[in-house]
Amino acid sequence: MNTKFKISRLIIVGIRKNYITTFHEGVNIIYGDSDTGKSTILELINYTLGSKNIDLADEINTSCHYVSSEFTVNDKVYTFKRDIFNKNNPIEVYPCLFEDCGNFYPDKFNPTSAPSNNGLDYISDFLLEILNFPKLKIKTSPSKANSQFQKVSFRNVFKYCYLDQDSVGSKSLLENNNWAKSTIIKETFKYITNTLDSSISE
């Protein structure tokens, strides 16, 4: 799984102007006073990648239309666009820079929160595909021969890339109080590091 996944920009499209955060190669440090939007930047990135919910500041609620994030995945550029007011609306994905989106018709995918009765694939499956991650299912009870299987999603993988401020130091970080979720989280780590036991997956 030799993959490069880099965020280039976060664009909050506003009524009067756009709010743009640019990221550079290497470590990027977001700093500032309390309640100035540092966490919101990360939450919006996560939201464009399909997370279920986001808490929006009043300024965003009253002055913004939607949010876009621009990524480079294995040398290909993608722009993800998502409605910030209706979390169940499809996520639009463009094969270009944000400024060029008007020249392309987007592919549309369901976010994690959306029902699957509209004929669209989920954004998770698309992300795993462009990241060259194989799609597979893992036993929820690895020691049981008749265990049910659960599909590994991008959200499972992304848990090892993104921690919000409420999760850091939390005793429930690895969902130890929920054996099914805890198993998937632990086995996903093996999946990422290519050490997963093939006998518990399909």
From TrEMBL:
InterPro entries, sorted: P-loop_NTPase, Rad50/SbcC_AAA
Keywords in alphabetical order: Exonuclease, Hydrolase, Nuclease
GO molecular function, one term: exonuclease activity
Superkingdom, taxonomy of origin: Bacteria
Segments forming a coiled coil: none
GO BP field: double-strand break repair
Domain Rad50/SbcC-type AAA: 22-167
Name of the protein in its database record: Exonuclease SbcC
